[in-house]
Design brief:
mainly alpha; 8 helices; 0% strand
């Protein structure tokens, strides 16, 4: 195995990894906001908007991410809408993951007993104080694990953006392979990098979850 090919390609791979991390951070934040908005609209929407929201969620959940990317990159220009490759990547990831995030938020909020909301209204708490002081502190520990799973999936799926020439990690790896003719070494380095990143995220999330749920653990006498 020629590891010098990996060493020589490190600057290009590092630049591609930086692009991947930037795109994933932006897409994750947009997906979180989009999922929260979808969860709110699904709860408050009237009879006209609810079927539209359900149709969007159903279509997105039923399509592969690659199809969403192709639709945004190749089909929208036929209707006069041309987006740059990075914008297509962020938009595709956001559109694809927002319904999943909405499902996680909805499930966590529905797990909280209705009586707590009624008690908050009886005490005269505003909706915002009820949300931030009572509901979210209980829902966040339940949301953390599935949201981290979605984040890891988003990072892995970002590799698909190379098909529309987004200069992210996998695209940089393909370029490096075309120059070094060392696919085994380059792809192995890419695989290890993805594994390390996702393992670190999972480990950090488990630590945060333990800290957030300390009150559930019985005291040691």
């Amino acid at each position: 195995m020629d590891w010098r090919a990996v060493i020589d390609s490190t600057p290009a791979l590092w630049q591609g990894l930086q692009v991947t991390l930037q795109l994933c951070v932006i897409a994750a934040l947009c997906s979180l906001l989009g999922g929260a908005l979808l969860a709110f609209l699904n709860r408050k929407a009237n009879a006209f908007w609810r079927p539209i929201l359900m149709l969007y969620s159903g279509l997105t959940l039923g399509l592969p991410l690659l199809v969403v990317i192709y639709l945004l990159y190749f089909v929208l220009p036929d209707y006069g809408i041309s987006l740059s490759s990075p914008v297509v990547g962020i938009s595709a990831l956001t559109l694809y993951y927002s319904p999943y995030v909405a499902g996680v938020i909805r499930a966590a909020m529905q797990a909280i007993p209705t009586g707590q909301r009624e008690a908050c209204r009886t005490l005269g708490l505003s909706p915002l104080r009820t949300l931030f002081d009572v509901l979210l502190p209980q829902a966040l520990p339940q949301m953390l694990s599935p949201l981290v799973g979605l984040l890891i999936g988003l990072i892995k799926d970002s590799a698909l953006l190379s098909v529309v020439s987004v200069s992210e990690f996998m695209y940089a790896a393909k370029q490096a392979i075309s120059e070094t003719y060392a696919p085994l070494e380059i792809y192995l380095a890419v695989a290890v990098t993805y594994w390390v990143i996702n393992t670190l995220i999972d480990t950090l999330a488990r630590y945060v979850e333990r800290r957030m749920t300390r009150y559930r653990q019985p005291a040691i006498k």
